[in-house]
Amino acid sequence: MKILIEIKRQEDGDSKPYIQLIEQEIERDNLTVASLLRTMNADLELKDMEGSKVSKISWECSCLQKKCGACAMLINGRPKLACDTFVRDYLKKGKISLAPLSKFPIIKDLIVDRSILYNNLKDIKAYLDTELILKDRDTDTAYEASRCLMCGCCLEVCPNFSVSGDFYGAASFVPVSRLISTVKKGEANELKKEYEEHIYKGCGKSLACKDICPAGIDMDRLLSKSNAVSVWKL
Questions:
Q1: Alpha-carbon distance 113 to 98, whole Å?
Q2: Does domain 115-230 have CATH number 1.10.443.10?
Q3: Are 231 and 196 in contact (CB under 8 A)?
Q4: Is the dihedral of CA 109, 67, 77, 48 positive or negative?
Q5: The two domains 2-112 and 115-230 share their CATH topology (first three levels equal)
Q6: What is the mean pLDDT of each run of 10 residues along the chain (234 residues)?
Q7: CB neighbour list of residue 210: distance below 8 Å, 6 or more residues apart
């Protein structure tokens, strides 16, 4: 069965984006979008619908097992992981649309610059000055927060996040919740202050992040626990 691949491409952040249409034969039922992109890049004679040779499509991947978040992109307008999205789910529609995440600076094609995720964690001081001894009651929270892939899908759908804004979104509050919900009263005051300024004040509680998270992280539970410790002082 054949399917039409629509890819938004761009040479770099300063060049004009364009749409390239490529028809591809689907031979395997378990083909993921990541596998599809690898197959297309391996075909040196691949041509688009206009008969032009298709240059190598730039995209990111690492584990290909839903563990690293590197292959996040827009698939039919929805932020998803290419390694966890199956082509068979789009065969009835007859087309798959691939585009880069829209809230981050473009590097090339489907690759975006997500360094803001890590810069925000550094800015919010997501670290402790002393050793943290994890208690049994805190292990569930720590485990839940540790599943964050830092893929950026949550920020793509967040109505309040922008790269240049002061609200850092779920990509910051999930890792921070691992620390902030386990410290004793009176500790990590600087981290709590930054949390209130860059997360609590800007979050509209839409929880779009929970609905889109590839890891299925329980965002509202982590958010309420972190708010309780940092803002409500419970």
A1: 17
A2: no
A3: yes
A4: positive
A5: no
A6: 95 95 91 96 96 97 94 98 96 95 97 95 80 70 89 96 94 88 73 90 92 94 86 70
A7: 217, 218, 219, 220
Neighbouring C-alpha atoms within 13 Å toward the C-beta of 161 = 27
Residue that the structure tokens 């307008």 belong to: 77
Report CA-CA distances (Å) from 59 to 16, 35, 190, 227. Answer: 18, 12, 38, 37
pTM: 0.91
What's the rounded Cα separation, in Å, for the pair 84 and 88? 12
Tokens of 72: 């996040």
pLDDT of residue 120: 94
What residues does each domain of the chain span? 2-112, 115-230
Closest CA to 75 of 170, 163, 156, 179: 156
Rounded to whole angstroms, the Cα distance separating 180 from 191 reads 8
pLDDT tens by residue, 175-190: 888 888 777 666 678 8
Domain 2-112, CATH class in plain words: alpha beta
DSSP state of 138: G
Q: Are strands 95-99 and 2-9 parallel, antiparallel or unpaired?
A: parallel
Q: What is the C-alpha to C-alpha distance for residues 167 and 169, in angstroms, rounded to an integer?
A: 6
